[in-house]
Amino acid sequence: MQRSSAFPTRSGGSGTLLAVALLTAGLLWMPDPHKGGAIAQTRQIESEAGPIAVETIASGLDEPWGLAFLPDGSMLVTEKTGQLRRIAKDGTVSDPIAGVPEVWTQGQGGLLGVALDPDFKDNKLVYLAFSEPGEGGKAGTAVARGKLDGDTLSGVEVIFRQRPKIDGRNHFGGRLAFAPDGTLFVTTGERFQFEPAQDLTNTLGKVVRINRDGSIPDDNPFVGDDTALPEIWSYGHRNVEGAAINPATGELWTQEFGPRGGDELNKPQAGKNYGWPVVSWGDHYDGEKIPNPPTHPEFEDAVRHWVPAISASGMTFYTGDAIPEWDGNILLAGLASQAIIRLSLEDDAVTGEERLAMGARIRDVAQGPDGAIYVLTDGAGGKLLKLTKISDSEG
Ligand SMILES: [Ca+2]
Fold it and tell me: How much is the mean pLDDT over the chain?
């Protein structure tokens, strides 16, 4: 293969063997075209579409959580510990962007999802989901927006607050997805409190739908119902850390952490109940059994579920041309599974699944304007990785 020129120490057959050995071990280093001759670490993974190059664009991120592309191809990345940073196309990581609200950073709480306004080119508005501190150490999921002016967010206002704020370090949800009509879906979690997910007088364990200024869309399912909060879109959710709009249909899809086993892919519809904690494909961590969804047909079942859990966070629908075989597929960012989970679809049904072993917990996945796939690895020392198919002419 042509890339064997990267190995100065061998020629002929032994060089090819060395290249194959290093590729197999995932240790190949290739020149990085973005860095003017500098060397970036690139390795190769195998997939049903052929070999995929995985390039490290940036590293040393502090618990990166969410990723959004700016029109110029640079990226906004949230760090759960409270910083919003811009990563240039060449991998340069900025200092923290000023103006980010105070964030409650314990357990699963912190600075979470990030999204650009659908009219960002004109209004420069950036939306951040985060855990907002309350009185007495309580916290709740919130959404703020502000205008990105250089490396400062200005005019920052909170447009959604989960209610009520409560104690506890877990299940904040925190993904944002703009629908084609310009409304904003916000995913939450039930803060590890179980039953509140069934109670329509709070926004724990709900998917919420708001207008861009935080007002309530007139056509939300519970508008005019005195027994329910009008911002609720769907309920009976546990901890929804993945959300994306299917570009083929304009509908919201979400990814939800189940208990022990039972992670779910859902297609939340207006006013529908997704069953938690009454039903689940998993069991409680103490071993207590939970009835399976088919025992309660009044609830909406998941499109797909996983036992054992894949433990996925971010998700996207892929429509790029860097890996054309994956057009229209769902990509899930797998934490415990340390994989990108790829799902092929036909008429909203999952027709196939492939797990791309990444060797690291994956927190978010997004498609770049170049059509490539970008993922964030989880935890301290997090990385931004770029995936592209290695074409036949290269391989
Ligand atoms: Ca469910």
Answer: 91
Strand order in the sheet with 84-87: 64-69, 75-79, 84-87
Q: Is the Cβ–Cβ distance between 326 and 49 less than 8 Å?
A: yes
70 has which bridge partners? none
CB 374 within 8 A of CB 62: no
At 208, list the tokens: 């919420």
Are 186 and 140 in contact by the 8 Å Cβ rule? The answer is no
Task: With 0.85 as the threshold, say if the pTM is over it.
Answer: yes
Tell me what the mean pLDDT of segment 269-273 comes to: 98
Neighbour count for residue 237 (Cβ, 10 Å): 27
Instruction: List the domain boundaries for the chain.
Output: 28-62+314-395, 98-309
Ligand 1 geometric centre to CA of 340 (Å):
22
In this structure, are residues 87 and 58 in contact, taking their beta carbons and an 8 Å threshold? Answer: yes
Q: Are 163 and 140 in contact (CB under 8 A)?
A: yes
* ∠ Cα 50 360 263 (to 5°): 90
Measured distance CA(166)–CA(162) in Å, rounded: 10
CB within 8 A of 305, min separation 6: which ones?
258, 262, 263, 264, 265, 281
Environment class of residue 7 by beta-carbon count within 10 Å: exposed (0-12), middle (13-18) or buried (19+)? middle
Residues belonging to the active site = 171
Residue 34 main-chain phi, psi, to 5 deg = -85, -15
Token pair for residue 140?
């709740």
Q: How close is the Cα of 282 to the center of ligand 1, in Å? A: 10
Query: In this structure, what are the phi and psi dihedrals at residue 301, rounded to the nearest 5 degrees?
Result: -90, 160
Summarised one tens digit per residue, pLDDT across range 198-211 is 999 999 999 999 99
Question: What is the token pair recorded at 95?
Answer: 């200092």
The CB density around residue 89, as the number of other CB atoms within 10 Å, is 15
| CA 376–ligand 1 middle distance (angstroms) | 26
In the CATH hierarchy, which fold is given to the domain comprising 98-309?
A: Neuraminidase (2.120.10)
258 CA distance to ligand 1 middle (Å) = 8
